[in-house]
Design goal:
The chain is mainly alpha-helical and about 230 residues long. It contains nine helices and two strands, in the order ααααααααββα. Bound molecules: zinc ion. Zinc ion binds next to loops.
């Protein structure tokens, strides 16, 4: 293989194409191996197939494979997620471990809406899982207003975006699809950025004249992110 980096969009030589196909096959096969191992671990655990030689599943994992029980359980949990929703890899599975199958399906659909493209990423899933886990928002003990309304709005806008995706293949020259979809995304971002996030790190919520939090005592998501860089 040549060591020279291709500029984006440059054509591959036939030799490079062969190499790419070879590498992609290895990746695809090994990603599949991850799920196969998960299924095998689950089979041994569920059917107690370790019992002839080991006192427990944990001992079998540790002594035979040098895998801590926790890792084996996580591996199995990832496989179970994969059996429920069409995730691509372990990173995506990790975002959904701990959810019940219904929540996983809901998170997947929501992530499709959040991404807006044809591919769901672990980041989209993280965002969707966050909305589902937080549910309707508990009142906060540090005096931060409930973010229930913001999260519900965000989820609703995400649903709107998902619904709007159905227009994509619809023939209608009078519908400005880009405008509607960008508008929905921008509104969702504006609401998400304004969501109450944490107590003001500068005044700890106790200065009515605080410049950072405008006397509110708390920071929004966007403010909190930028304050992290300057105030910690
Ligand atoms: Zn403040």
């Amino acid at each position: 293989m040549s060591e020279i980096k291709k500029s984006h969009g440059g054509p591959l030589s036939s030799e490079e194409q062969v190499e790419l196909v070879r590498c992609e096959r290895i990746i695809r096969d090994n990603l599949q191996t991850f799920w196969d191992v998960g299924e095998a671990l689950l089979c041994v655990r569920e059917n107690r197939l370790y019992i002839e030689t080991h006192r427990s599943f944990e001992a079998w994992c540790q002594e035979k494979w040098d895998i801590p029980r926790k890792s084996a359980d996580r591996h199995i949990a990832a496989f179970k997620v994969k059996s429920n929703v069409p995730i691509l890899n372990e990173a995506q599975a990790r975002e959904m471990i701990g959810m019940n199958p219904e929540e996983q399906k809901e998170a997947w659909e929501m992530a499709e809406g959040i991404g807006g493209g044809d591919r769901v990423t672990a980041r989209d899933l993280h965002e969707a899982a966050d909305i589902i886990r937080k549910g309707l928002g508990e009142p906060d003990k540090y005096g931060i207003p409930s973010d229930e309304l913001y999260l519900t709005m965000k989820a609703s806008l995400t649903q709107c975006l998902m619904l709007f995706k159905r227009f994509e293949n619809l023939e209608n020259p009078w519908l400005n699809k880009a405008f509607v979809s960008n508008w929905l995304k921008n509104v969702r971002t504006a609401i998400s950025d304004a969501k109450p996030e944490r107590v003001c790190p500068k005044c700890k919520g106790s200065d009515a004249n605080c410049q950072l939090c405008k006397g509110m005592g708390w920071l929004s998501k966007l403010m909190s992110d930028s304050a992290k860089r300057t105030h910690g």
